Amino acid sequence: MSGSSKQVWIVSDGKPGHLNQSRGLAEALARRCDVDISEQPPLGRLQALRLCFGSGLPRMDDKPALIVGAGHATHLSLLALRRFYRTPVVVLMQPSLSTGFFDLCLIPEHDRPSQRPNIVPTRGALNRMQPGVKTPGSGVVLVGGPSKHFAWDEVAVLEQVEALLAADTREWLVGSSRRTPAHTEQALAALCGPDFVPAAQTGPDWLPSQLAGTEVCWVTQDSASMVYEALTAGCRVGVLTLDEGADNRVSRGVDGLRKQGIVSASPDWQLRHVTEPAAVFNEAERCAEYILKRGWL
Questions:
Q1: Which domain of life is it from (predicted)?
Q2: Is the whole-model pTM more than 0.70?
Q3: Separation CA 182–CA 188 (nearest Å)
Q4: Which of 78, 169, 180, 263 could join 257 in a cystine, given CB atoms 3.0 to 4.6 angstroms apart?
C-alpha cells in the first residue's frame, strides 16, 4: 500500500451483482486519484451493533477515507464503520434503513428515490464496464431467462433473434446467461451454430471483453443489468422485447432509456431510433466525479 494513497473500503455481501456495483464505483475513483481498494465481508450483527451504539469509541489514525457497500446485508456494517472511523459511507441501491443515515445514496431512477441532498439518482446500477477499441461489423446478442418481472417466451425470443440475424448481417456472437433454460440454449445452438456461446463455457472476463470490443449489442428485456453494462461499454444497444407484468421497476428503467433515444427495441433491427451517442453513458464515472467534488478523497 502506498503511503500517500487513501483507502477505499468495499463492504461486500459476496453477491456478484452487488460487488460488481461497488467495484465499478471504486475503480472509477481509482482512475481519478491515488487510492487503494480493499474488500471485506460485513461485520457480525452483534459486533456492528456494539460499534453503532457503544460509547467512548477511539479516533483511528489509520482509517479509510471512504467506505462503499451494496446489498441489505452490508447496511448495518456501513453505519457501524461510519461511526467507528468517522468516515463517509456510500450505499448503492435503495437501502433497507433510512437514507438519512448514510452520507451518500446512489439509487437507480427506476426505484423512484426521494429528493434529498444525500441522494443521487442513477440510470440503472453501476458497473465495471469500460469501452475498448470497437471491431467494425461486430455484434453480440445476450439472452437471459425467466424472471419475476417478465414472462419468458422462448418462441418469441428465438423469432426475434432469427429476424435480427437475417436483417443485420454483421458478425454475431450469441451468448446465454445462468438463467437461460437448457431448452432455449439447445434451440439457440441449433439456430446459431458455432456462433452460440453457452454461459457454462464463459468465464468472468468473457462479457467485459466482448462488450468492450463490439459495436452493437442486443439484450433480452429481462436482463436490465446487461443493458446498462452494454451502454457503459460504448455499444449501440437494442432490446429484444418480452411480455411484462404490471408496472415494475425493471421495465420502467428500460422504457425510460427508449424514450430518451438511448436504446431501441425490436423490430428496429438497424437501431434507427437510437439518437444518443453511447460514449456518454457511464454512471460510475459520473458518481465518482460527484464524490470527488464533495472533497472526500
A1: Bacteria
A2: yes
A3: 10
A4: 263
